[in-house]
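Friendly challenge for the regulars: who can give me the structure tokens for this chain first? No prize, just bragging rights.
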Amino acid sequence: MFKIGEFSQMAQVSVRMLRHYDKLGLLKPSSVDHFTGYRYYTLDQLPRLNRILAMQDLGLSLRQIGDLLRQDLPVEQLKGMLALKQAELSQQIEDEQRRLARVQARLRMIEQEAESSLYEVVLKETEPLTAATIRQIVPTIQDMQAYRCSMLDDVYGWLQKHHIQPNGHETIIYHMTEYIEENLDMEIAIPVADEVYEELASRSRGDLTFRRLDDEGDFACTVHSGQIWDIPQAIISLVTWIKTNGYDIMGGIREVHLSGRETSITDFDNIVFEFQIPVQPFGT
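First reply, four minutes later:
Bragging rights claimed.
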């Protein structure tokens, strides 16, 4: 038998909380000395106490915990509840880490506002491109990463199945001329050799097609090398250059992955992407 103070120390739960559990009927002392009023606990009560603490960590109220204990919640069910909570917390941590990275990137952007642009912009004509492509509408910006990975895996998987080697850098084409967060029109393009184009065109199926990206005209282009979270600064610099140099934007952004396949990137602090925007001189 353990006095309440001893049990408190062993279980790492305050005496005040043990008394509160007693008052609510969640964890009654094994015995109470009628003369001194001392409460005594036993080792057999630790599993029940641990269940109470585990359910509190799940965010359940003490009243809800009492109801579940009266139903004699099976251990497997409790483990399942804790596993779900673990997954939820892991997702929250991941979301907050992304938020932190965005805040850090925004701070860097603010610090760079008074400085000259760190990005060199060039005007060039893009080479015609024969590519295997998938184009889909992404419901929300939060779904973007999952869609990108799925679409890339789909195209690469099809090419591998038919023993066709990619012939250039994968490209993401955003068919929007403004920033939106819902119903994003996105296309994945994986270059293939021109000589197999006719054969590939006949193999198009469903949302996977083969087409030539032979847009005529000029593209304003810049290369971003560094952290993935700093990409917005590259876009800002590119659009600013276009407007200050007398050009109109004629289409959506192309994102060319110079550092390799997106799904193989492990170091997001050292990516190399080129961004391209079709332009024409203002007023033409």
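The first helix runs from residue 4 to 11. The chain has two domains: 2-73, 121-281. Your move, everyone else.
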